[in-house]
Design brief:
Keywords: DNA-binding, Phosphoprotein, Transcription, Transcription regulation, Two-component regulatory system. This protein is α/β, with parallel strands linked by helices. It contains eight helices and twelve strands. Strand 4, helix 4 and strand 5 form a beta-alpha-beta unit. Helix 2 packs parallel to helix 3 and helix 6 packs across helix 8.
């Protein structure tokens, strides 16, 4: 019997001492990477030296050893894994210091999920560890992420801003229930001050746009839980 090819995900190490944020980052990344996590600098450095990773997400304000020293130690040990620094230290001096030590990119808190994923994927693509598929589909709905366009039964439909992001997220997780919290974190960022009820407004807008070109509602409301795009 012929065996199907196994597609290996890139390996990402996330070093962050805030457990809630660490859980969010892991959740953001597991769709396209195998994730290892560490809550302090010493453990993170140990993992980085013991195993080969395709990218490292590194906080600066870490217990045991700070991110700057950790990065310096890795580069001194000839470990050239691409590093995305993720921190609240947003001064130009801190950024330049990070790049001088060998960081590849720098993202300051607070941040949006989409920007974090885009920057991490860019590092992985630069390292030839990840190749992103730029098209999504669910039944007659097709999304081209590269051109930011959506067609339904071949007919172009306009979904501005967050509505485009919302429909893309629903299609990425089609036939899966997404809670309001998951949708909110995806679209606005886990630390956003926007009210959770805004999701209902955007769901309504997406439904209205789809209704113009479809004869049935593919977005199902799961009472007191969230929503699901059902194909």
């Amino acid at each position: 019997m012929k065996k199907e090819a196994v597609i290996l995900k890139p390996k990402v190490l996330i070093i962050e001492d805030n457990e809630a944020l660490l859980d969010n980052l892991k959740g953001f990344t597991t769709d396209f990477a195998d994730v290892t996590t560490a809550l302090d600098g010493l453990t993170g450095e140990l993992y980085a030296k013991q195993d080969a990773y395709d990218a490292i997400v590194l906080d600066l304000m870490l217990p045991e050893i700070n991110g700057f020293d950790l990065l310096k130690n890795l580069r001194a040990s000839k470990i050239e894994t691409p590093v995305l620094i993720l921190t609240a230290k947003d001064t130009l001096q801190d950024k330049l210091h990070g790049f001088d030590l060998g960081a590849d990119d720098y993202l300051t808190k607070p941040f949006h999920r989409e920007e974090f994923i885009a920057r991490l994927k860019a590092l992985l693509q630069r390292n030839h560890a990840y190749h992103d598929d730029q098209k999504l589909a669910a039944g007659p709905i097709e999304i081209d992420l590269a051109t930011h366009t959506i067609t339904v039964n071949g007919q172009a439909v306009n979904f501005p801003g967050k509505e485009f992001d919302l429909l893309s997220y629903l299609i990425e997780n089609q036939n899966t229930i997404l809670t309001k919290e998951q949708i909110f974190n995806h679209l606005w960022g886990f630390d956003s001050q926007t009210n959770l009820n805004v999701i209902e407004v955007y769901i309504s807008n997406v439904r209205k746009s789809l209704k113009q070109v479809m004869d049935h509602d593919v977005i199902k409301t799961v009472r007191n839980v969230g929503y699901m795009l059902e194909v």
